[in-house]
Amino acid sequence: MGDLKIGAVTIGQSPRVDVTPDIMPIFGEGVELLQAGALDGLTKEEINSMEPLENDYVLVSRLNDGTFAKFGESFILDRLQDCITRLEDQGVCLIMFFCAGTFPDIFKAKVPLVYPAKILNGLAAALSKNSSIIVITPDEQQVQQAYDQWGPIMKQVTPIAANPYGDMDEVRKAAEKARDIEADLIVMDCIGFTKEAKEIVASIAKRPVLLCRTTLARTVSELLDL
Fold first, then answer.
1. Torsion of CA 209, 122, 113, 34, to 10 degrees
2. Residue 169: Cβ within 10 Å count
3. What is the DSSP code string of 76-113?
4. Cα–Cα distance between 59 and 100 in angstroms, integer?
5. At CB < 8 A and 24+ separation, what contacts does 168-176 make?
6. For 149, how many CA atoms within 13 A lie in the half-sphere containing its CB?
7. Helices marked H in the chain — which ranges?
8. Is the dihedral of CA 17, 145, 46, 11 positive or negative?
9. Cα 45–47–49 angle (5° rounding)?
10. What is the residue-level pLDDT of the chain in tens, covering all 226 positions?
11. Fewer CB within 10 Å, N- or C-terminus of the chain?
C-alpha cells in the first residue's frame, strides 16, 4: 500500500508539531499527514483583531511560534472551509479536526470529517457509570461552553480551566482540584493537552482520563484499519 493521505485541520496555525509526536505512532508506517490551519499566513495583529464577539464561541489554539491565541469562532468558519477544500484537493481520504470545540454543521466535504467533540461526547456517555465527569478546558471563558456541550448528556459536569499551552503547573493544579471532586471520568477537552499532561492528571487525580488527541487518532486508526 502506498502512503495513505490523512488530512488535519487546526483552528490555529499548521503544522501542529506539538500534536503529531503523540498521534503519528498510533497511525504507524504508510500514513502521510497533510495539515492546514485557519490562521495560516496571518500576523499576530490580524489574529488579535479576532477577539471573541459577545456570544461568540471562544476558541484557543497554538500558533507557529509556540504561543497561543484566543479568538472567536465566527472569524474562522469560512477559513476552515478553505482548509477542508485545500486538503481535499491534495487527495486526503479523511479529515480530522485538531480541535475539541463544537462547530456548526455547515462545512461541505467529499470525505469524512472527524470531530473530536463528538467522539469524546459518545465515549464519556458510554463510560460514565453515574454520568458524572470532570472536563478540563483551556480557558475560564470556555467554562460555560463546557456546561453547554456536556450538560445535555451528563447528569453532573464540573469544568476546570487549565491552559494546555502554558506551564505544566496549571495542569497539576487542575488535577489536584479534580482529585477532590466526585466523578467517574476526566476528559481533557482540548487537542493541545499532551500525553504527558494526561499522565500527570491520571497520577494525581486517580481517575480514568480521556485525552482528546490520542482518542481522535485511535478512532481514525480504527476507521481506516491502520
1. 10
2. 9
3. THHHHHHHHHHHHHTT-S-EEEE--S---S----SS-E
4. 9
5. 168/196, 168/197, 168/200, 171/136, 171/197, 171/200, 171/201, 172/200, 172/204, 174/136, 174/201, 175/200, 175/201, 175/203, 175/204, 175/205, 176/204, 176/205
6. 29
7. 20-27, 44-48, 77-89, 116-127, 143-150, 168-179, 195-205, 212-223
8. positive
9. 75
10. 458 999 999 999 999 999 999 999 999 989 999 999 999 999 999 999 999 988 899 999 999 999 999 999 999 999 999 999 999 999 999 999 999 999 999 999 999 999 999 999 999 999 888 889 999 999 898 999 999 999 999 999 999 999 999 889 999 999 999 999 999 999 999 999 999 999 999 999 999 999 999 999 999 999 998 7
11. N
Give CA–CA dist 188/47, Å, rounded: 25
Give me 133's grid cell.
465527569
Query: Which residue do the cell numbers 455547515 mark?
Result: 106
Distance between CA atoms of residues 214 and 199, nearest Å: 13
Amino acid code (one letter) for 189: D
- CA gap 138, 141 in Å, rounded: 9
Grid cell at residue 46:
490580524
Q: Does pTM top 0.90 for this prediction?
A: yes
Residue 201 per-residue DSSP state:
H
What number of helices (H) and strands (E) belong to the chain? 8, 10
Residue 46: phi and psi, rounded to 5, are -65, -40
Q: What is the rounded distance in angstroms from the CA atom of residue 6 to the CA atom of residue 221?
A: 10
Nearest alpha carbon to residue 97 among 196, 9, 210: 9
